[in-house]
C-alpha cells in the first residue's frame, strides 16, 4: 500500500487515483502473500510474472466494456466463469482467476478510461515486483524453519491431546461432559495427524531434513510417535468407559498431566506405576493400562523433535510424500470434493463436467441471479451481491462448504457493520487515524483468516467503513445497504450450491470413507506378504502404506468434522462423531497389526492367512457401502483369534497381532 501511495504521488494520480493505486496494491499483496509461498525463488518468480497479466487482462476487458452498461454486466458473468474455470490448471491459477476478476471489477466500478489504464498497470507491476522481492528475501519460506515449526506444533498438539484425555477420564461416563471430552480427544488426535503429514510433505525438500536423517527415517520416526499416540488415545477411552479404582485413575491423570507439562521423565515414572495399581482390576481395565503403558513408553522414549541441521542433506530419489502440499499447506476440502460425483439426473450435462468447470458454471449462474436481485435492491451497489455470490465458490468443495462460507460472510459483515460505524464516527476527520485502522484491519483480517473466514470479513467491513469515510461517502445507510446486498448474494450462492449440480457433503463423506477402507485393505495386503516372509517387504514400503491411510483419514476428517457440530441443516452430529471415531480406531488398530508383524523374525502362514481374510473383507466393505450381505457374512477367523488366551506365548506366537486382527475385523463389521 505504501508503494502504491508513493507511486501515485510520483505519477500525480490525484485523490481518486491514490486510493485506486493503494487498493490495487492491496489486491496484489493479499493474493501474492498466499500465492508466493514456495521456498524456490524461480518458482515464485514464474508465479509473480503473471500477476500483471491476470489483473491487466481484467482491467483491459473492464475498460473496453464499461462504456455500455449491459455489455459490462455480460462481461461480469464471463469473467466470473473464467476466474473459476482456470483453477483446473493448478494452485497459482486460483489466484490468477481472482486477480483477473478483481481487475475487471475495478475497471467496471470506476469506469476506467484508456488514459488511466497505463498508470494502473504500472501500479500492478510495481506491487508484483515488491511482493516477489519480499517472497525471495525476508518473507521467503525456509524449509528447515518450517519443519521446525511443524515439530513445535506437534509438541503443542501432543500436550493438547494429553489435556483432552485428562478431561475424558475425569468426566462421568455417558454424561454430556464425557461426550464433549471424547470429541475433543478425536479432534486433538486428528490435528496431530495433520502435523505428521505436513512434516512428511516438507521432508521431500532436502534442506528441511534433520542432521543425518533421510526422509524415510523421519517418516518412520513420526509413524512410531503416531503408534504411541494411538495407544494413549485408545487406553484413555477404555479407562474412561471401565470401572477403575480412584487410585488408578489418579495415577493415569498424573501421567497425562506430566505429558501436558512436557515433563517426559515424570510422565515415564508415573506410567511405570500403573501395572502395580491395576493388578486386581477387571480385564478391561488391565487392557487399558497395557495400552497406556505402551503409549507412554513410545512417547517418552526419545524426543519427538529431531535436531535440525544447517547442512543440506541429499534426499532419496525414491521418496514420495504422502500428500503434495499446496503452497506449503495441506490441501483443503476442494481437493476431496473434486473426485466426488455431483448429484443430478442423467439428462443434466453439467454433472459430467470436471469439478472446476462445474464450479465455473455455478459461479456464472450465481452471478446472473446476483446482478438481477442486487440491481433490484440498488442499481448502483449491486456489485456487493455479485461479490458475495462469487466468493461463495472460492476455496469450497461441497454444498455444505459453500453454505457455511456464505453464512460466515453475512455474520462477519453484520458484526463488522456495528464496529465499522462506531470506529468510522470516532475517526471522522482524522485521515491518519483512519489509515491506521485500514492497515490494522487488513493485517488482522489476513492473520485470522485461517481461524475463520468470518473474522476476515469482519475486519474487511471495518476497512471499507474507513475507506468510505476517507472518500467522503460514509453513511450508516450505505453500510446497511451493503449488508442487504451481501445477504442477497450469499443467499443466491447457497441456492445455486444446493440446486445446480451440487456435491453432497454426505456423498463426499461416504466415498472418502470408502477410500480410507480401501487404503486399509491395500496396507493389509503388504502386511500379509510381510507375515509370510519377513524379508520380502521392507519397513519403508510398510511406512508408505500406513501414511497413505493417514492421508485418507485426514481427507475424511476434513469433510466430516464440520458435521460433528450441530448445524441448522445437520441434526445428527453424534452419529457422525461415532462414525469418524470408528474409522480413527480402524487406523490405530492397523498400526498395531503392522507393528506386531514387523517384529516377526520368521514367517507365520496362519497369521498371514487371517490378515488376508480381513483385507478381502475390508475391500468388500469399501465396495458394498452398507450392503446387508457384507454385514452378515464376515470372514470366520481362526480359533486362536477368537480367544487369545489359548495362544502359546512361550513358543513366540504373536498374540498381539492375532488380537489386533480380530479387533480390526470387529471395527470393519461395525463400520459396515
TrEMBL record:
Keyword annotations: Cell membrane, Membrane, Transmembrane, Transmembrane helix
Location of this chain's protein in the cell: Cell membrane
Membrane disposition: Multi-pass membrane protein
What residues form the membrane-spanning segments? 6-31, 43-61, 67-86, 93-114, 120-139, 360-377, 383-400, 407-426, 453-471, 477-500
Q: Which residues form a coiled coil?
A: none
Please state every residue range assigned to the domain named Integral membrane bound transporter.
369-496
Stated family: Belongs to the YccS/YhfK family.
Name of the molecule in the record? FUSC family protein
Protein species of origin: Gryllotalpicola reticulitermitis
Amino acid at each position: 500500500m505504501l508503494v502504491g501511495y508513493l507511486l501515485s504521488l510520483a505519477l500525480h494520480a490525484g485523490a481518486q487515483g491514490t486510493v485506486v493505486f493503494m487498493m490495487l496494491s492491496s489486491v496484489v499483496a493479499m493474493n501474492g502473500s498466499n500465492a508466493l509461498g514456495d521456498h524456490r525463488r524461480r518458482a515464485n518468480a514464474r508465479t509473480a510474472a503473471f500477476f500483471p497479466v491476470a489483473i491487466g487482462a481484467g482491467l483491459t476487458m473492464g475498460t473496453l466494456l464499461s462504456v455500455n452498461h449491459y455489455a459490462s454486466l455480460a462481461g461480469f458473468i464471463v469473467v466470473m466463469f473464467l476466474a473459476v474455470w482456470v483453477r483446473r490448471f493448478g494452485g497459482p491459477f486460483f489466484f490468477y482467476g481472482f486477480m483477473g476478476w478483481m481487475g475487471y471489477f475495478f475497471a467496471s466500478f470506476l469506469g476506467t478510461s484508456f488514459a488511466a489504464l497505463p498508470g494502473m498497470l504500472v501500479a500492478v507491476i510495481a506491487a508484483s515486483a515488491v511482493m516477489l522481492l519480499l517472497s525471495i528475501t525476508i518473507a521467503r519460506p525456509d524449509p528447515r524453519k518450517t519443519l521446525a515449526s511443524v515439530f513445535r506444533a506437534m509438541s503443542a498438539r501432543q500436550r493438547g491431546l494429553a489435556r483432552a484425555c485428562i478431561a475424558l477420564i475425569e468426566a462421568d461416563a455417558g454424561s454430556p461432559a464425557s461426550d464433549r471430552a471424547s470429541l475433543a480427544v478425536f479432534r486433538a488426535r486428528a490435528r496431530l495427524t495433520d502435523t505428521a503429514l505436513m512434516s512428511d510433505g516438507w521432508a521431500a525438500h532436502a534442506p528441511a531434513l534433520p542432521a543425518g536423517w533421510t526422509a524415510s527415517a523421519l517418516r518412520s520416526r513420526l509413524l512410531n510417535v503416531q503408534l504411541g499416540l494411538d495407544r494413549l488415545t485408545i487406553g484413555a477411552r477404555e479407562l474412561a468407559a471401565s470401572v477403575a479404582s480412584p487410585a488408578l485413575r489418579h495415577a493415569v491423570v498424573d501421567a497425562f498431566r506430566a505429558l501436558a507439562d512436557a515433563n517426559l521423565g515424570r510422565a515415564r515414572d508415573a506410567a511405570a506405576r500403573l501395572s502395580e495399581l491395576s493388578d486386581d482390576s477387571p480385564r478391561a481395565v488391565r487392557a487399558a493400562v497395557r495400552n497406556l503403558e505402551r503409549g507412554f513408553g513410545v512417547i517418552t522414549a526419545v524426543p519427538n523433535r529431531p535436531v535440525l541441521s544447517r547442512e543440506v542433506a541429499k534426499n532419496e530419489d525414491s521418496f514420495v510424500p504422502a500428500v503434495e502440499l499446496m503452497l506449503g499447506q495441506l490441501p483443503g476440502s476442494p481437493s476431496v470434493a473434486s473426485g466426488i460425483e455431483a448429484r443430478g439426473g442423467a439428462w443434466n450435462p453439467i454433472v459430467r463436467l470436471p469439478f472446476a468447470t462445474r464450479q465455473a458454471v455455478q459461479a456464472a449462474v450465481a452471478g446472473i441471479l446476483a446482478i438481477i436481485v442486487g440491481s433490484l435492491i440498488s442499481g448502483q451497489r449491486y456489485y456487493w451481491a455479485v461479490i458475495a455470490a462469487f466468493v461463495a465458490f472460492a476455496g469450497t468443495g461441497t454444498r455444505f462448504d459453500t453454505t457455511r462460507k456464505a453464512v460466515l460472510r453475512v455474520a462477519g459483515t453484520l458484526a463488522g457493520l456495528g464496529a465499522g460505524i462506531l470506529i468510522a464516527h470516532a475517526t471522522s476527520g482524522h485521515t491518519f487515524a483512519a489509515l491506521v485502522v485500514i492497515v490494522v484491519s487488513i493485517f488482522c483480517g489476513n492473520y485470522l483468516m485461517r481461524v475463520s473466514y468470518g473474522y476476515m470479513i469482519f475486519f474487511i467491513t471495518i476497512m471499507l467503513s474507513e475507506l468510505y469515510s476517507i472518500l467522503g461517502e460514509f453513511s450508516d445507510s450505505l453500510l446497511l445497504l451493503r449488508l442487504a446486498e451481501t445477504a442477497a448474494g450469499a443467499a443466491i450462492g447457497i441456492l445455486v450450491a444446493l440446486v445446480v449440480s451440487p456435491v453432497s457433503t454426505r456423498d463426499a463423506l461416504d466415498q472418502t470413507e470408502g477410500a480410507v477402507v480401501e487404503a486399509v485393505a491395500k496396507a493389509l495386503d503388504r502386511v500379509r506378504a510381510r507375515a509370510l516372509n519377513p524379508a520380502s517387504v521392507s519397513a519403508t514400503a510398510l511406512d508408505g502404506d500406513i501414511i497413505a491411510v493417514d492421508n485418507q483419514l485426514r481427507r475424511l476428517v476434513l469433510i466430516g468434522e464440520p458435521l460433528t457440530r450441530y448445524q441448522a441443516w445437520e441434526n445428527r452430529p453424534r452419529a457422525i462423531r461415532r462414525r469418524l471415531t470408528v474409522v480413527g480406531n480402524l487406523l490405530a488398530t492397523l498400526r498395531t497389526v503392522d507393528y506386531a508383524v514387523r517384529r516377526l523374525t520368521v514367517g507365520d502362514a496362519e497369521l498371514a492367512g487371517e490378515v488376508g481374510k480381513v483385507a478381502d473383507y475390508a475391500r468388500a466393505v469399501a465396495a458394498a457401502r452398507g450392503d446387508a450381505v457384507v454385514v452378515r457374512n464376515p470372514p470366520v477367523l481362526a480359533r486362536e483369534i477368537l480367544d487369545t488366551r489359548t495362544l502359546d506365548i512361550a513358543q513366540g506366537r504373536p498374540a498381539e497381532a492375532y488380537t489386533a486382527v480380530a479387533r480390526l475385523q470387529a471395527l470393519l463389521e461395525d463400520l459396515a
